[in-house]
Amino acid sequence: MNFADLGLSKPILKAIEEKGYSTPSPIQERAIPPIIQGEDLMAAAQTGTGKTAGFTLPLLHRLAKGKNAKSGQIRALILTPTRELAAQVGESVNDYSKHLPLRSAVVFGGVKINPQIRNLRGGVDILVATPGRLLDLYNQGVVKFSELEVLVLDEADRMLDMGFIHDIKKILALLPKLRQNLLFSATFSTQIRKLAQGLVNNPVEISVTPVNSTATTVKQWICPVDKKQKSPLLIELIQKNDWHQVLVFSRTKHGANRLARQLESAKISAAAIHGNKSQGARTRALADFKSGSVRVLVATDIAARGLDIDQLPQVVNFDLPNVAEDYVHRIGRTGRAGATGQAVSLVCADEFDQLASIERLTNKLLDREIVEGFEPVHALPESNLSSKPQRKKKPTSKKPGSRPDTRKGKTAKGHRDGQRSGENARGHKPQGKNKSHRSDSSSSGNTGAGNTTEQNRSPKPKRAKPQKRQTDSGSPASTEGRTQKQTRKVNTGGSKRSGNTNPGANSQKPARRIRKRPTTSNK
What secondary structure letter does DSSP report for 225? Predict the structure, then answer.
């Protein structure tokens, strides 16, 4: 089957021929006919199989039959999760619509909004946008959706995973109810599929490849290596194998910058691309990499979706992704459109859990090759597809006074007769802080052998009785049995400093004199 058999118009077929394509891919062959008929569609296919052309070609065919968009209006809206993917889809729309009288535009954040506003004032037939910038333009009254005919969600699973579901719901509330809905994605989890089905109306579901499968044209292997030796190993692989175009994935932004500097110090031209870079810097780095002026492009997972680089031969996972599905999209940057490619992962012992998740997801054990001179000190454990990930058990805290129970392998309390001990009755509150928590044997009556806490408690020291004070003549004082503090309070005038009838108390501790500060008058 060729593209002419799918019912596409001649201007579109001419553009396809100029691009060098003659035979549609499986996803294009199954998706184009229902889209031309106006049905809703939800398609899942692995990356690099031509999903973008799968909805762009029939979309252009339908829009070419109608009238052009009016001022401020949009006829078709394509939503993408990242700027790079939006730019790529915009290029595909321009390439395939060059012989059609249709207008298109691309809008995303990170750049000035005024040029985008000028492009949208006259109205566009196809708008490719990211959700955030689209809402900004709508709030400023730049775009209107009353004449919208088609809505496309590209990389729908990634869009929902990145937290765009709230923005998508806001956009859906603004769109007319009578419209065609298309959802294209590389993978669909069960949760994402259920959520996506709520956004379309009786869709035609297409799945041309197994879920989370990788391209057979990509050779996958891993290099066990210690974490500190990853950078020298990468430099060794690039120089030894004479790699001229390598896409390297790093887990963090700072790691991408650091790796790019290390490659530059080894006389290997490199550039970093991540979210902290401005859109201009990201565009220049990607353009230099495509042209060949930059040998290595170090990127975070923002480049795992949407980057379409012709004949990209090498992909390196410097760090394994935390999400196993991202591995499928990373290595999908190579081996596209039937071409061959290689995907190598540098794996240390700390990344074994991520490696096991990837192998279970793809249902394939990756080949291991140890490079001479970079043998790992910390060995990477062997993988097994049949083993399931073990959940970490919560630590169990042993209470004081517990003893092993040989009958059921559990721990029992310190009492034997089933009665709660004094410590458990107090709720493990500190002793001596609250009198109501004390349980002396005289008050509670717990004198049995089971009350281990009361038996082990140290006896409370007795308070010394006050001695009788003697007067100067040697006879007992009239305040016999009173403490020294109580004796000082007995006076004739009601004051502690004057009129005290007990000369012994005054002789032991003289009254404290209070010195008054001199006051100065303000003149």
Answer: -
